[in-house]
């Protein structure tokens, strides 16, 4: 199977064409300027307002329009999404499949005047649409031919932009892999090239986020999921300051490297950015089919140290996957507590027999699992009986009775600090080993 790291190296409808707006961002506006010139040229010649949309029918450029606007075009200029019923109606007219100009009749129900639509294609892919308001439905065949030539010109520009974007993305992927290298020299050279190629504005404090999926890397549909993850992270990056973020799709996860000085991160916090990442991925991939959690590494001094933040985020994701009820859908390495230390251990090699014998006894019997829960709550509260009783919703007398039973059944001395430490660590290790226990006490 193709490596998802390389998934987007060839322009395809799934990987390149869906978002022409992304192509316009790569070069500081040259492509947008050229498209504006193309639209202005034909609008001046035909003396009618012209607009260019991407393939999702989102406005890219439009011409000076005077009073010749209908409600649908005005809404798009105001950055409002096209209503779903309008999109569905346009699809019934065959504009997606058309190879030339299509006359779109007026639709008073939508506040939409008659217009001409010409699909914009490049490299064999649908890239967008050229629109001309034709309120009186009197556009001539010569004018339609002129619009088709204009759409061809726009297709060349858009496709070139997508190819350039793909080249940039390939270079970025390669350099992101390098900053994650074990070789410090390779990492430092990669940082230097990221700055020289103006992929990042400058080196500086950085943090890595990892969005991990539960699907195995080789599962059916992995390539499509990788493309969806890539597009989702692109959408997140559109809200960040340009040249302050990098990302890479890898088997089973996607990583996002963000400058610690990024304005959006300072304003909303890294946790807010992580929640946005998760939401964008949920919009791109059905979360019921592909649950996603986002893990955050510690902030490091520079991109050459991003490897450390990346590995922390990976370990945090593994812990959260095993104990999802404890950490939820967004987890930070800095907030893992004792699990930071335990995540460094080779958990796959831990022998359950290493757990305190008394704890093993309690875990072995389902009818005493509620005592395990009681013990964990008590130790999590550092032996604070009132706090533990409140969390367990029991009277303090009941809690004291349970603690005595724990000591009796497990031959445990809760007054011994070392035993308490051993028991507490044993409970956390048991969680990481996938052991679970009921929280409910058996009927009296």
Automatic annotation (TrEMBL):
Source taxon at top rank: Bacteria
Ranges for domain GAF: 109-157
InterPro entries: CdaR-like_regulators, CdaR_GGDEF, GAF, GAF-like_dom_sf, PucR_C-HTH_dom, PucR_C-HTH_sf
Matching Gene3D superfamilies: 3.30.450.40, PucR C-terminal helix-turn-helix domain (1.10.10.2840)
Pfam families: GAF, GGDEF_2, HTH_30
Annotated ranges, domain PucR C-terminal helix-turn-helix: 371-429
Protein known as: Putativetranscriptional regulator
Organism: Patulibacter medicamentivorans
């Amino acid at each position: 199977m193709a490596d998802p790291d390389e998934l987007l190296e060839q322009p395809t409808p799934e990987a390149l064409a869906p978002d022409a707006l992304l192509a316009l961002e790569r070069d500081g506006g040259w492509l947008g300027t050229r498209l504006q010139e193309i639209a202005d040229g034909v609008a001046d010649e035909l003396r009618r307002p012209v607009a260019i949309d991407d393939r999702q029918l989102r406005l890219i450029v439009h011409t000076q329009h005077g009073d010749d606007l209908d409600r649908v075009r005005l809404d798009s200029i105001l950055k409002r999404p096209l209503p779903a019923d309008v999109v569905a109606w346009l699809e019934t007219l065959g504009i997606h499949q058309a190879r030339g100009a299509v006359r779109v009749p007026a639709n008073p129900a939508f506040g939409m005047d008659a217009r001409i639509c010409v699909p914009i294609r490049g490299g064999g892919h649908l890239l967008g649409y050229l629109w001309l308001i034709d309120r009186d439905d009197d556009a001539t065949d010569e004018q339609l031919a002129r619009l088709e030539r204009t759409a061809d010109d726009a297709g060349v520009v858009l496709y070139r932009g997508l190819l350039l974007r793909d080249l940039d993305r390939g270079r970025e992927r390669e350099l992101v892999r390098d900053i994650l290298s074990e070789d410090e020299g390779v990492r430092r050279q990669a940082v230097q090239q990221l700055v020289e190629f103006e992929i990042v504005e400058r080196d500086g404090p950085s943090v890595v986020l990892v969005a991990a999926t539960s699907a195995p890397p080789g599962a059916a549909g992995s390539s499509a999921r990788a493309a969806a993850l890539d597009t989702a992270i692109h959408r997140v990056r559109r809200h960040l300051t340009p040249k302050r973020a990098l990302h890479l799709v890898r088997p089973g996860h996607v990583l996002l490297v963000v400058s610690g000085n990024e304005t959006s991160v300072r304003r909303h916090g890294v946790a807010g950015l992580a929640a946005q990442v998760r939401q964008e991925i949920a919009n791109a991939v059905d979360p019921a089919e592909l649950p996603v959690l986002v893990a955050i590494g510690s902030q490091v001094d520079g991109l050459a140290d991003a490897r450390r933040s990346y590995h922390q985020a990976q370990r945090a994701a593994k812990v959260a996957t095993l104990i999802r009820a404890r950490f939820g859908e967004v987890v930070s390495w800095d907030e893992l507590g004792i699990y930071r230390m335990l995540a460094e251990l080779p958990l796959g090699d831990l022998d359950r027999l290493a757990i305190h014998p008394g704890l093993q006894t309690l875990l072995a019997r389902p009818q005493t699992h509620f005592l395990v829960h009681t013990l964990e709550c008590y130790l999590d509260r550092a032996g604070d009986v009132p706090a533990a009783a409140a969390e367990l919703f029991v009277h303090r007398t009941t809690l004291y009775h349970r603690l005595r039973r724990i000591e009796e059944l497990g031959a445990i001395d809760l007054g011994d600090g070392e035993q308490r430490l051993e028991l507490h660590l044993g409970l956390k290790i048991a969680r990481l080993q996938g052991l679970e226990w009921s929280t409910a006490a058996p009927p009296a």
